[in-house]
Specification:
Elements: E1 4-8, E2 13-17, H1 24-37, E3 45-49, H2 59-71, E4 79-84, H3 90-97, E5 104-109, H4 112-131
Parallel strand pairs: 2-3, 3-4, 4-5
Antiparallel strand pairs: 1-2
């Protein structure tokens, strides 16, 4: 089963929503497919809603994703991945991912609205710096 996917290339934002029957390999396949289809998406911000997922992702999944992002030229701009999860331990997993990706930070939020608000603030800050 594939995750739900919303792409806004103009805002450089992708939202992936995992329902209860989406496994990590399905999520990873969809994510890599989006980046391989358009390599510039490696520098998009991602919101990944894991609230209903199994949590079966592995270190190998993260490494494979990071390698693909690097191969597609990721790191040209600061990017963020926002996970939506109720798992309190996921914060540590997200912080560990920061070391695997070039110029990308990983954050955990309770709701998609919180993640969108975080990314909106970051985008507003980038626009202000670019205009100065």
């Amino acid at each position: 089963m594939k995750p739900g996917i919303e792409i806004d290339d103009a805002c450089r934002r992708v939202v992936l929503t995992c329902t209860f029957n989406v496994m990590a390999r399905d999520l990873n396949g969809a994510l890599l497919g989006l980046v391989l289809e358009k390599p510039e998406r490696a520098d998009h911000d991602f919101i990944i809603d894991l609230r209903e997922s199994y949590g079966d992702g592995s270190h190998d999944d993260v490494v494979r994703t990071a390698e693909t992002f690097r191969a597609c030229g990721a790191g040209r701009r600061a990017s963020h991945t926002c996970f939506i999860s109720f798992d309190a331990g996921f914060v540590d997993w997200a912080r560990t991912m920061d070391f695997c990706f070039t110029n990308r930070t990983h954050h955990v939020f309770s709701t998609p609205e919180e993640a969108h608000a975080f990314l909106d603030r970051r985008q507003d800050g980038r626009r202000a710096v670019a205009a100065a």
